Amino acid sequence: MRVGVFGGCFNPVHVGHLSLIEEVLTRFELEKVLVVPNMNPYYKENKEVSFDLISKMINLAIDDKWNCEISTLESDPNKDYTTYETLKVLTEDNLNNELYLILGSDQFLQFPNWKNSDEIKDKINLIIALRDNYNINIEDYIDKNIHYSKLDSGNRAHIFKSNNDKELIFYDLIKKFDISSSIIQKMVSLGAVDEVEQFLTPRVLNFILEKGLYR
Q: What is the pLDDT of residue 147?
């Protein structure tokens, strides 16, 4: 089974997340997505919302549209996490599956600074979702990483394969949303419900308002 692995805060999950999942699963014929909410992100301030509430919002947003599983591997807000350690567990638990780590181009630009980033590339396939504000010079990257060879180019995707048979895929998203969870949090805190509803599914927005989140 081809399985996507998609990490992030999802606090809250918004249309940008959902559109990305839908495009990537459809374009690359992934049969399942593992969503990994990180409850202790080192890279951003986070409004304290429990893993249970984050999971409920994700389930409300996805609503059986895709084969989705929420992972608990980064669910402890008091523990520090690394993508390498999380993927190590996931690969051991998915020996019969082909895993694809899904990253936004903003994340990939920081990828060389991640712990064990070279080992991550050896362990798992990568799908890089390209966004307008975070451009990547693909040719320059491949020139500097000569262990990759081109497999295919077309239909908005540039696909490379490494010497150890792992794919590196750059995919130009059809739909791009200039929104973040932190901006949505601020909009909700200011009571701008009419403005924020374009970025959330109705069920997620209703859940946020009912629970009084981000107030």
A: 87
For residue 101, which amino acid is it?
A: L
Pick the CATH number of 2-178 from 3.40.640.10, 3.40.50.20, 3.40.50.620, 2.40.30.10: 3.40.50.620
Q: Give me the numbers of helices (H) and strands (E) for the chain, helices first please.
A: 9, 8
Contact yes or no for 40/81 (Cβ under 8 A): yes
Sign of CA dihedral 149, 87, 64, 59: negative
Q: Is the four-CA dihedral 58, 62, 63, 68 of positive or negative sign?
A: negative
Summarised one tens digit per residue, pLDDT across range 90-129 is 999 999 999 999 999 999 999 999 999 999 998 899 999 9
Residues whose CB is less than 8 angstroms from the CB of residue 22 and which lie 6 or more positions away in sequence, other chains included: 65, 66
- Percentage with pLDDT > 90 across the chain: 84
At residue 15, the 3 state secondary structure works out as helix
